[in-house]
Amino acid sequence: MKQSVDDAFDDHPIGAERPRVSWAVVIADDCEDCEELRVELTLEEDGKRGTGLTAHLAPATAKRLRAALATALKQLGDPDT
Question: Interior CA angle at 35 toward 43 and 32, to 5°?
Fold first, then answer.
């Protein structure tokens, strides 16, 4: 089972020095060695589908990533975090 949660491109300008990157978040249970569902985070360079890296995150690791993103947003002055 795989269930897509969200996907988009980063906010880097098209044609800039660095390529745009796509990201996708999926819930998956296709890991035979894993004991629980995983959150998959895939990052790929724009136009190079299938060549990116996918992280298989246990719920605790996904929460740690969520906390790190919230901390970064707070440090940027985001009032919603």
Answer: 70
